[in-house]
Description:
Layout: H1 2-48, H2 50-68, H3 74-87, E1 92-99, E2 105-108, H4 123-131, E3 133-135, E4 139-140, E5 147-157, E6 160-170
Helix pairs in contact: 2-3
Amino acid sequence: xxSVTKKICCISMLIILIFNITGCKLTLKAGIIKHSKNDAQTxxxxxxxxxxxxxxxSRFDTLEKSLLTSKMNDEAITNIFENFLTEIEIEYTNxxxxxxxxxxxxxxxxxxxxxxxxxxxxxWYVQAKEKGYYVSSLYKEAKTGENILTxxxxxxxxxxxxxxxxxxxxxx
Length: 172
């Protein structure tokens, strides 16, 4: 009787294990397909708004030069951001710079961020740091409900990463 019970338990456990493995494979496959669809959607959105992105990329060259020649303090960065934003011909919600060494965040227009906010762990920062730049998929801005694309770029002085600059672009 004990051997029959053991066999039934072993067979039951084996069946449960097979179902769990199959379920994990299906979940993983679904995640990969969803991720691939998200990547494809992002590429379509980027292509649809390539003119805006090309414009911002070209304007970021000037922004980078201004930041690299500044004293990198609150007042200097605020002035650079204000000048940059008066010169661009594109609708935006935020312009920001997060430093690599201490994670200080400069944001324009100024807003209060949580005390524990660290932009260096955000996807837009990590991706720009790894690849040199990052373009998000299209998303709705929480406060306004506007469609937004985020563009970020790593800022280097010689080979040293100073931080990441970014802008949230409103797209129609």
